Amino acid sequence: MTDDEALALAVRLVACKHFRPMPGMRDLQGRTWTPDLLWRWNRTSDVPDLADPATLGCLLALVREAHDDECACVFPIDYGPGGVRWIARLTAGGRDMTQHVHASEAEALVAALEAAP
Known about the structure:
Structural class: alpha+beta
Strand order of the largest sheet: 1-2
Radius of gyration: 14 Å
Largest sheet: 2 strands, antiparallel
Shape: globular
Helix content: 25-40%
Strand content: 5-15%
Order of helices and strands: HHEEH
C-alpha cells in the first residue's frame, strides 16, 4: 500500500460513525494515544497509523463493538499468485461483513466498520 493509499484509508476510517480514538492507537505523526491525551484528539488532523499493530487491534475491538459480535474476525484468504486477500466475518452464521475481499487487514477492518449498522 502506498503512503497516499494508507492516508486515504485512514481518512475513511476517521469518517466512520463508529470510529473513536482509543488508548494505544498511534497516529501518523508517531504519537501513541494515552488516556490523558484522548481529549485532544482532532478528527481532521490526527489520522490513525493503520500499519501499527496496536492500532489494528483497537480497530478490531471497534468492529466487534459496532457489530455486537465479540468474536467477529478478519482473516487472510490465499488467492495464490494474486497475493493474499483479507475478509471480515461475523461469527453468527459465518456471515461476511463486507461484500468484497480486501488487499490488506487494515482495509478489511475499515470496510467492516463502515458496514456496521
